Amino acid sequence: MELNGSYVLPASTQKIWEMLMNPDTLAKVTPGISRLELESENVYKAIAEVKIGPVSGKFEGKAEVLHPVVAESFTLNVHQNSKIGNVSAHIKMHLKAVSENETELSFAGKAHMSGLLARTGNRVMSGVANTLTKQFFQNFEDELAAKEQV
Amino acid sequence: MSNKFIGKSVKRIEDKRFITGKGRYTDDIVLPGMTYAYILRSPYAHARIRSIDYSAAEAMQGVVTIMTGEEVGHYGVPCGWQVNFKNGDIMKEPPHPLLVKDKVRHVGDAVAMVVAETRELAQDAAEAIIIDYEVLPAVTDASKAVLPGAPLVHDDVPNNICFDWEIGNPKAEVDEAMASAHHITSLDFVNQRLSPNAMEPRSYIGQYDNVYDKYTLYTSTQNPHLIRLLMCAFVLGLPEHKVRVVGPDVGGGFGSKIYHYTEEALVTLASKKIGRPVKWTETRSEAFQTDAHGRDHVTHAEMGFDAQGNIVGLRIKTFANLGAYLSTFGTAVPTYLHGTLLQGLYTTPKIHLDMTCVFTHTTAVDAYRGAGRPEATFLLERLVDLAALEMGVDPAELRLKNFIPAFDGVTQPGYQTNVALQYDSGNYHSVLERGLEMLGYENFRKEQAEAAKTNKILGVGFSTYIEACGIAPSAVVGSLGARAGLYEVGQVRVQPTGKISVFTGAHSHGQGHETTFAQVVADRLGIPMEDVDIIHGDSDTVAFGMGTYGSRSLAVGGSAIVKSLDKIIEKGAKIAAHKLECSADDIEFKDGKFTVKGTDKSLSFGDIALTAYVPHVYPANLEPGLDFSSFYDPTNFTYPFGCHIAVVEIDKETGFTRVKRFIAVDDVGNVINPMIVDGQIHGGLAQGIGQALFEGVEFDENGQITNGSYMDYTMPRADDLPMFELDRQVTPCPHNPLGVKGAGEAGCIGSTPAVVNAVIDALWSAGHKVKDVRMPMTPERVWKAMQPA
Question: Considering only CB atoms, which chain B residues are within 8 Å of A83?
Fold first, then answer.
């Protein structure tokens, strides 16, 4: 499944970068993530619970940040296992300053699914991915606003 | 012999239990102390197993045993048909282990089996097994699997080629005929992979009895004896007389339950290991991954014509996908059940098929309703219809011009094809002419011309098919590589009170044998149908039989029963002659009575039955009892044929295709129960139309099945289909005693190309001169075909 899109967030590239590299923030804004622990440098252990149409499951696995260029780009490698199938994704993330207080975050990559996850509801999967992405950015924005207020 | 039942639409005896929910399927059987198995399957199409850790699962409550490839990987299931390479080398036959040890080769490949007190506990424990996979690249398309650098399914099978094969006239002769052709129609197409979707999922129970040292396997199968033979002799090395295989009520097979599956042997082994019965029933999700798939050919075909429109040659290159492992008949389907049908109904003088059978990282492929014959029919009928469009001639006239002339197989000889078979009897022109009459062909073309100006365009598609059924003469199939005979057994036991128990090796999984066979027996003996019981599916009660597939039950199994009935009547006449004090030659058997010819002296069938078992007044030198068993081995295949016509309406704005009419004129030889034959045709048509418009297993680039559920895999439904318009012609089979040809597969064999041809015809009528729309012809694909390139 192809994954790509972009979104403009109301903060500087530096601030967005810091939030993206902070596991607590990420756990809070990523839909379905219940726990994200730093295992070693740039490697996170992730536990997520996701419901996609008729299938739902608890995912456990790793997320790895590769080739980080501060405030510019990184690659995210995710491998998650569950009883209903496994997901692996390879996504390139780019940060681009639109103005001093606005950053365009764009991503492009591919996700591969196996097991029941691949067999069932495959044709609604990219719709689900879009919904989850939108939710991620919405949560991110909410989190930014909350930080402003503090 | 009386004529009370044969030819009548007697209601199905078995339906009482089926439609009241009282059918007894394998999963309905609960044995004392029974345990439940769950099979852990590969989520990947191709991966190396680095390690398997089941320590946590083993410790879980309720777990009885866990088996892996380490324990049983040396056992494997065999292939039932050997096909050789063109150069004579034996086909590649890599092992198909009960559980894999080192490498998984398709999504759903079995890695471990957990046996526990309940199904849920077994599944929970299976999910606690940790397997470390190294995921490898996979290939699912047969035509790509043979290319250099493609991932190998089996390390010792170069280019993934199981074997290459050819049939027909020498290639050079066909090339020469094609070179001289006035017009050549060529077509590249995919006959897509189908999931069989039997209503009853596969289910097995293994039961080992340590008192009698005897195994029982309950199995949802089409052929219990064949399963016993394969499992005993080729898989587990068990003594056959110590193994009983029971196929109780079976809810559909369509060919997918011929295959001797690994799980049958696994539950048998596990029951011996733990000393308790072990039941395994698959989920629908597992059915999509592991029940043998059908079809899956990638083909380039060319048909050559002379200036007068006579077919001069047929040249084909096909890649057939066998899946990751060889199924029981997987090798026979694309070869001897497909290549041998490429004469079709035509006098084509030169034919050559070049076939490559290929392993891929997919579910094994085996017989699926029609098995090879639908693929052959699709190829021929698409080419003929397309050629008519290209040459600007009428598709019906092009067929009539090229049909083999009628022959009855009695006063005229059978028709010798260029692809090994000899047709038994046929009258091909008349089925097409009758179809055209039912269609109202001339009117239709006018209606079509009008519709072409609107948004709802119309098309008509023809398909005139022939199939080889009544499988099969043992000596013929043996010489072609079959590792079994294909006769059938029929035992008729007359009970002392004149009631009849019939034991048949044919196995009903929806065909209505309990009714059709009883009609034959009741009429032959002149007794009521309720006096006849048809017993099948138990290897301990029925002599060695071959089961049901290839539209063989009545043609082969019914003929075996008739042989036994003849012996009963012959012996009955001797008993009657003794009692009536005449010679046996003077006895006539009619309407259930043995009568001295020309007199009113007679004895009823019941009197004779009782005398046979209470032989106080009895001929000397005659054994008591009235119980005969016969084996019938056919001398030829049977060759049903027919004409299917589809009328479709396409919405130009959406590409949505509706089958408006479907006409089927079939000749299946003599008919015992017209209602059951109609039912078989209806079901076959639904499946054939399903392939054309709705069905197809899809894989992603990693070999994942992406439509492995009923939310994703489209099945034909009643509201997708028109009221079928059926008619029949009868050309009796000249070489079996009932004159029957078989009706189980006809509907599925003829219908698919009729629908595709109708869509193409509609598109041409609106000026879109496309050669093909890939099946399933979804609205999206049809719509795209109407857009400017």
Answer: 127
- β-pair partners for B740: B669
Which residues from chain B sit within 8 angstroms of residue A112, using beta carbons?
700, 702, 704
CB within 8 Å: A119 and B43: no
Q: How far is B329 from chain A (nearest CA, A)?
A: 27
Which residues touch B216 (CB under 8 Å, ≥6 apart)? B205, B206, B207, B209, B243, B244, B245, B246
Predicted confidence at residue A150, as pLDDT, reads 64
pLDDT in tens, B195-233: 999 999 999 999 999 999 999 999 999 999 999 999 999
- How many Cβ atoms from other residues are within 10 Å of residue A67's Cβ? 9
Which residues does B399 contact at the CB level (< 8 Å), separation at least 6?
A: B345, B346, B384, B432, B462, B464
CATH class of domain segment(s) B487-632: alpha beta
pLDDT, tens digit, 9 for 90 and up, residues A92-148: 999 999 999 999 999 999 999 898 888 887 777 778 888 888 999 999 999 999 887
Fold of B31-136+199-252+257-290: Aldehyde Oxidoreductase; domain 3 (3.90.1170)
Using one digit for the tens of pLDDT, what is the confidence trace for B718-736? 999 999 999 999 999 999 9
Which ranges constitute the DSSP H helices of B131-170?
142-145
Of the CATH numbers 3.90.209.20, 3.30.365.10, 3.40.50.150, 3.20.20.100, which one belongs to the domain with range B294-471+636-785? 3.30.365.10
Whether the CB of A77 is below 8 Å from some CB of chain B: the reply is no
- More confident of the two residues B291 and A31: B291
Q: Residue B621: left (phi > 0), alpha (psi -120 to 50), or beta? A: left
- Mark residue B149 as left, alpha or beta (left: phi above 0; alpha: psi -120 to 50; beta: remaining): left
In chain A, whose CA is at the least distance from the CA of B283? Answer: A116
**Do B143 and B319 form a contact (C-beta atoms < 8 A)?**
yes
Instruction: Name the residue among B107, B127, B708 with its Cβ closest to that of A120.
Output: B708
ipTM over 0.90: no
